[in-house]
Design brief:
Layout lengths: L1 H21 L8 H8 L8 H5 L2 E3 L9 E3 L9 E4 L2 E4 L15 E3 L6 E9 L4 E8 L13 E5 L38 E8 L2 E6 L2 E7 L3 H8 L18 E4 L6 E10 L2
Antiparallel strand pairs: 1-13, 2-5, 3-4, 4-13, 5-12, 6-9, 6-13, 7-8, 7-12, 9-10, 10-11
Length: 264
């Protein structure tokens, strides 16, 4: 009898432990569930972002708010695909951009914090312009600073300029991004531009890669010594407010999660 009772207790204990190990406790989430919940939604604002003044510039499904530079319509060289603004590569570089062209968000911004995600195709080149102006028969790069978007491995521009100042994240042809932390072709990069009363910061993949100050003597000296010595020649210097634009350089590039917070 004692032997039977001992066996009964042991069996009951094993069954109880088995049941507990095979079921989640109330309110408990698996590691897999937590990982899924940690993935941010694409082209959406979080509750915290909404409450702190962020605005979404691209809804992921339409070109609402976007148009071609010096145009009223959204250019055919771009498409909305898989939740991205996709510049369709032509294989002919800058010359192939004639059928598409740069796109701008149809509102001028002054002091702001911009966030964007980008992904580049093999040998691709593009750029994020800010404080840009529209002038007939002028490209936007003559009026706007540019945060470079580039395939650093395959595009020859990565080895031109000075000290890597044409690589991804750089203030194009002026200041190199350091550290150079761009991810390879096919992977998403995060880019941020903070512009406040002339102080400009570039961030790439979560790290500050450069800082500079518009309208200063140092700024004017850099421009004079760059490949664009006549940059902003129709102004004394870069405008205090302007458009945000993405460059069509004839190469495949994708943008998503475009959001901005205007600063006071």
């Amino acid at each position: 009898m004692k032997k039977f009772y001992s066996l009964f207790l042991a069996g009951t204990l094993i069954f109880a432990v088995s049941c507990q190990s095979g079921q989640k406790k109330a309110g408990e989430k698996s590691a897999k569930d937590a990982a899924v919940e940690a993935v941010p939604e694409v082209n959406q604002l979080s509750a915290e972002e909404t409450s702190t003044g962020w605005t979404l510039l691209f809804d992921g499904t339409t070109s609402n708010g976007w148009r071609g530079y010096n145009k009223t319509e959204f250019p055919k060289g771009w498409e909305i695909a898989d939740g991205t603004l996709h510049c369709i590569g032509t294989g002919t570089g800058e010359a192939g951009a004639e059928n598409g062209g740069d796109i701008i968000y149809d509102k001028k911004f002054k002091n702001f914090h911009l966030k964007v995600e980008w992904k580049i195709g093999v040998g691709g080149n593009s750029g994020i312009f800010y404080l840009g102006q529209e002038i007939p028969e002028w490209p936007i790069y003559k009026t706007a600073p540019e945060m470079q978007v580039l395939d650093n491995v395959n595009h020859i521009d990565a080895n031109m300029g000075k000290d890597g100042n044409r690589q991804a994240g750089s203030l194009y042809d002026l200041i190199p991004a350091k550290p150079q932390n761009a991810k390879p072709v096919g992977e998403w990069n995060t880019a941020e531009v903070i512009c406040y009363k002339g102080t400009v910061v570039h961030k790439q993949n979560g790290e500050t890669v450069l800082e500079y100050h518009l309208w200063t003597d140092d700024w004017k000296k850099m421009v004079a010594e760059s490949k664009f010595p006549n940059l902003n020649e129709k102004w004394a210097d870069v405008a205090t407010e302007g458009y945000i634009a993405f460059q069509d350089h004839g190469d495949d590039v994708w943008y998503r999660n475009v959001k901005i917070k205007e600063l006071q």
